[in-house]
TrEMBL record:
Its EC number is 3.1.1.31. Coiled coil: none annotated. Pfam families: Glucosamine_iso. Pathway: Carbohydrate degradation; pentose phosphate pathway; D-ribulose 5-phosphate from D-glucose 6-phosphate (oxidative stage): step 2/3. The keyword Hydrolase applies. This is 6-phosphogluconolactonase. Keywords: Hydrolase.
Length: 256
């Protein structure tokens, strides 16, 4: 059994430098994807991540009309609710850039009362975007952007939860999230791990204790450590020095 290649870890002295470098990384991924397929498919998570993407607003060369944005996970609440990942992204990014509204793929608000149907509908949204263009068993995103929780969870994949073992569904419902709100939908590992690029973003002293358990001892099996892109997928971490203070894994200098 082959040993997974360790992720590339970029650590920055402050979040401003991190955000700017992340924007450059995303721009490079965008250029390569549009050159190959004429589009750029991105999936983002919530939390503080949307604010980290605001450095893109001032960058030239962003082809917003070629972006198709999905959510790695979403809270099952109205899209204008304070807990909605879409609302966070709308306020931090979409409202400030010319991305076509039709290119932002949200959950169906009319299905909030039926978690299974909502999950199935979002999976069908992925099928419409990917199945007719790609022949892979799972969708192949150009880039998936993830955060982590202090318990090592990522997306809505939590330690010890049965969804860690889901291998067939693209999108799965969760009604017992240990972090409120309890009802969510989330991408599964097969979708995350089939991406061409996966980038984690983690900042602040609050992440300093959990990061070594993910990066230095992945054998512990925390949810974030189970993200291992298959084939030639690329896994990178953008962290600040406060978050990576206890990490022993060698850090790399950011270069494109």
């Amino acid at each position: 059994m082959s040993v997974p290649t360790p992720p590339v870890v970029y650590s920055f002295s402050d979040t401003s430098k991190l955000s700017d470098s992340l924007a450059e990384y995303i721009l490079k991924a965008q250029r390569e994807s549009i050159d190959k397929r004429g589009r750029f498919t991105v999936a983002i998570s919530g939390g503080s991540l949307p604010k980290t993407l605001t450095a893109l607003i001032s960058k030239s060369g962003v082809k917003w009309d070629k972006w198709h944005v999905f959510y790695v996970d979403e809270r099952v609440v109205p899209l204008d609710h304070e807990d909605s990942n879409h609302k966070l992204a709308q306020e931090a990014l979409y409202s400030k850039v010319p991305i076509p509204p039709g290119n932002i793929h949200t959950i169906d608000e009319t299905l909030l009362d039926d978690l299974e149907e909502l999950s199935d509908a979002y999976e069908k949204e992925l099928i419409r975007e990917f199945a007719q263009k790609d022949s892979a068993r799972f969708p192949v995103f150009d880039l998936i952007l993830l955060g982590i929780g202090p318990d090592g969870h990522t997306a809505s994949l939590f330690p010890g939860h049965e969804l860690l073992l889901e291998h067939d569904r693209w999108v799965a419902p969760i009604e017992d999230s240990p972090k409120p709100p309890p009802r969510r939908v989330t991408f599964t590992y097969p979708v995350i791990n089939h991406a061409t690029r996966v980038a984690f973003v983690a900042t602040g002293e609050g992440k300093a204790q959990i990061l070594p358990n993910i990066l230095d001892t992945p054998e512990l099996g925390l949810p974030a450590a189970r993200v291992r892109p298959v084939a030639h997928g690329q896994l990178v971490w953008f962290v600040d020095d406060a978050a990576s203070a206890e990490v022993k894994l060698q850090k790399s200098e950011f270069k494109l």
